Amino acid sequence: MKLTEKLEQLKALFGEMERALIAYSGGVDSTLVAKIAYDVLGDRAMAVTAVSPSLLPEELEDAKIQAATIGISHQIVQTYEMENPNYTANPVNRCYFCKSELHDTLKPLAIQFGYPYVVDGVNADDLHDYRPGIQAAKERGARSPLAEVGVSKLEVRQLSQHLGLPWWDKPAQPCLSSRFPYGEEITVAKLQRVGRAEIYLRKLGWDNLRVRSEGDTARIELAPEKIKDFVLAIDLPILVSAFQEFGFIYVTLDLEGYRSGKLNQVLNKEILGAKI
Question: Which domain of life does this protein belong to (predicted)?
């Protein structure tokens, strides 16, 4: 199916909804959904961003700017997944508890303001990855227009560019809890030091990166083609000192480079192959 046909299907889908509340993180996927929803529904669409310690402050600011650029009504709500020990214990299905908290917050809000649908930015490719959060959203009646129409991750960016969205090539930025190996307890302090470390590197001009945290060790992941430039350009003692000020003791560089979902490689095939 052509990209323009998928766009028309998305528009028709929102037209049938009449009113929709968008679970809006500010990422490329949910921002595309917010843009199309607003183009079709106008003030009958509302974007809602959930704020918690696992969201980088700069990501919240991006979400606000992007929503204002689109013109869609934008609300901020607080979520409290960090108060749930099932979440902070960081099991392999951690995302289930995060999305449960999110949609248990959004659904009453949608009912309060008269929105019959809560929609998210899950795309067709997400359905083939290990995403336990998708199950939590489905259980609470959320819809995923991009997945319903069969829009892939690549097509999300192509559609965003087609619609003139300046952030169409924005790097993916999942929640900060994804920086920790399964089984390591997540705390606010740990989230904050990871967040500060990633912001520090981005301010130095590096993007599409992760700072993985394991115990007192920070492991920097960059695009493989950027690793050599990074080592040559960065004053390593200053970098180490900065990371130690953030709370890490050891600082390492992952020689394989950044790869989305890398921490999932420890999961066995039965879990990865499970339907969600």
Answer: Bacteria
